Structure formats: C-alpha cells, structure tokens
Amino acid sequence: MSAAQEQTRRPGWKFLRDVVIIVVAALLASFLVKAYLVRSFYIPSASMENTLLIGDRVLVNELVPGVVPVQRGDVVVFQDPGGWLTAAQGDDLIKRVIGMPGDTVSCCDSQGRLSVNGHPVDESYVVLEPGSDRVSRQDFTVTVPKGRLWVMGDNRSDSADSRVHGTVPVSDVVGRAFLTTWPVSRWTVLSRHADVWDGVPDASSTGGTP
Question: Among 113, 118, 190, 208, which residue has the least CB neighbours within 10 Å?
Fold first, then answer.
C-alpha cells in the first residue's frame, strides 16, 4: 500500500471510529439517564383524575427526593409502604403531596377545604364527589410525623390514600412525576400548583414540629 493510499484510508477509519464512539456514548448516556435520573410509569387507576387518566404514562424525576427536596403539591411515585396494594396491583403508587413532616393537615372547613398549618387551601384540580362541595368525605386532623408525608389522590372520592393507609415514608418516594408523555393528546407538564401551595406556612412558623 502506497503512502498516499494509507493517508486516504486513515481518515476513513477515524470517521468510523468516531461514529462508534458517539453511538456508544449516546447509548450509555441514555441507559444512565433511564436507570438513575428518569423513569416512565403507567397509570393504572382513576385515583388521580383528572390530572392523570387511566392509561397515561408519566416521566418521573428520580433526583427527588435524594437531591431535590419534595414539596407540597408535588405528584410523587412511591413504593408501597405495606398494605396499600395487593400482589396483583404491583409495587408503586402515585399521589399528590399534601402534608410535609411536621405539618398539621385537617379537613374540612366551612367551605369544604383542606387546611394545612391553619392555612385553607383552594385545590382547583380536585375532582369532588358528585353532589358534594367537600374535598374529602372524611373529617380528619393529623400531624405528619418526622420523615413522612401525607399524600392524597386528586380524585378524592376514588382514592385510597393517606386517609385510609396513613403517612408515607419520604424514603419510599421513587421520584416526582413531571411530564405526561402518552397518549400524545395528553402530553403536558404536570403542575404542583405553586399558586395553591406556596402560601402555606411552614410547620415551624405555626408551632409544629419540623
């Protein structure tokens, strides 16, 4: 092989090598993102309607809560703490965070609203039971223990949530759902409704235990 042929061949091999490296790097990055940062979950029940419908798929940010803290209003996926699901129903659930550690959550006030740390919350996203103006059929008052969360479904009349099963360990949270990806017609960013939740005072400012 002449020197000229060798020089012609080397750029071609370098190009192929670069393509292989790029493809391998892209596949590796995709695997790492899927394994450690983002996961997809299927919605099997009506407990989060109309925010999430049966058959929807959502992307979940797994940096929550390990790197990014959980906030009130977040829609979170969590592992069954025990007794929430049957073996046939799987291991994961999805609900909205209502109470943080130390928060006092109560229901209902004279307008049928939840209150968190004495602050009434207007939950515009909640599906009410037909003929009711209350966000929960049950009256309750609970102070959320340290390291745990009070979670509820948006479809309050069709959600067996913390009202039935109690609080959820923060350590059981898999991540925060942030995007509905399927079906295409349902593509949307999931809101924590900051306008609803950012006005709630912290438990420490109202005499609660953080």
Answer: 118
- Calpha distance 105→120 (Å, rounded): 10
Give CA separation, 181 vs 47, 94, 188, in Å: 18, 16, 7
Catalytic residues: 47, 95
* Under-70 pLDDT residues of the chain: 1-12, 14-15, 18-36, 205-210
Q: Bridge-partner residues for 96, per DSSP?
A: 75, 152
In sequence order, which residues have a C-beta less than 8 Å from that of residue 54 and are 6 or more positions away? 43, 44, 45, 46
H-helix or E-strand containing 115?
Answer: strand 114-116
Q: Which residues contact 174 (CB under 8 A, 6 or more apart)?
A: 39, 60, 62, 76, 77, 78, 79, 92
The Cα–Cα gap between 100 and 206 comes to: 14
Query: Cα(115)–Cα(133) distance, rounded to whole angstroms?
Result: 15
